[in-house]
Amino acid sequence: MNSGIEIGLYTLADLGPDPHTGQTISAKQRVKEIVEAAKLADEAGLDVFGVGEHHRLDYAVSAPPVILAAIAQVTERIKLTSTTTVLSTVDPVRLFEDFATLDLISEGRAEIIAGRGAFVESFPLFGYDLNDYDALFSEHLNLFLKLNQNKKITWDGHFRPSLRNAEIAPRPVQREIPIWVGVGGTLESAARAGSLGVGMAIAMLGGDPLRFMPLVEAYRQSGLKAGHKPENLKVGVTGHGYIAKTTQQAKDEFYPYYSNYWSYVNRQRGMSSYKITRADFEHMTDPGTALFVGSPQQIVEKILHQHEIFGHKRFIAQIDIGGLPFRKVAEGIELLAAEVAPIVRKETSK
């Protein structure tokens, strides 16, 4: 068992064109590469691998537990999580059954990071009203926590049919399926995660890490106020990353893919597809920012600097965005596992 913070990877399975070739790989190829990336991460000794959920043709994964079950068959140790499950638009009973099944298949490695998602396609797709965005999330999260604790449940809510002495099967290998709440920037979300005693995963996609400190404070304060033990209030940091032998090489190689990624993601979300300039990118990757782009040493320094601020228990990076070819993803996995993780674990276990 590794001491120090957990280090891992996650993917949202975006299907973007390679900016150098203009070619976009198929969903079939993308899924194959995600499973292979998880296998490499497991073999290299990383701790966590996450798969996100989208419901649109420019992403390859709409069913994280299915992909994670496939990954479970080719891995032995790595924890398997959703990043994130769009909790507002999934039935909590179905979600629990899917991840309890994954837990059985993986022999106790299943986890969930639940969020509200940056995209809203799942609301009309599954018959939910976008006006109920927050209320759905709250009710579904509370029901999931009850399902986690009870083999049989009687429950009444607003958005799904009542449950009367319902049997919730199968039961996972773990006593409960670990659940974290993904938080982007709202203090209310952070405080709710703390009061419920679930983990909080911060989506830290850039800027000064210190701006996220109020989230961590709100999370811990509400958690302690609700009677949860400090050691059970776990914070995770998630963010975009790219590692190469030198920081200059990392920036030179990653810039076209990073700029490409934000161009099509902003377009998908109905926003201006403004192209990030190289000067903007240089500023975004400064040593004091939360964008994890650089040499192994620079990545180590960023993670340790943030650990001093947040005292977080987990760091997971998204290193496969913008049409990046798989060979570059594989190189990043190797560098993260061999040259970043050992130093970070050693320093954070003191």
UniProtKB/TrEMBL annotation:
GO terms for cellular component: cytosol. InterPro entries: Bact_Lucif_Oxidored, Luciferase-like_dom, Luciferase-like_sf. Keywords: Monooxygenase, Oxidoreductase. One of its GO terms (molecular function) is monooxygenase activity. Pfam families: Bac_luciferase. Residues 6-310 form the Luciferase-like domain. Transmembrane segments: none annotated. It comes from the Bacteria. This is LLM class flavin-dependent oxidoreductase. It comes from Cohnella pontilimi. The lineage of its organism: Bacteria, Bacillati, Bacillota, Bacilli, Bacillales.
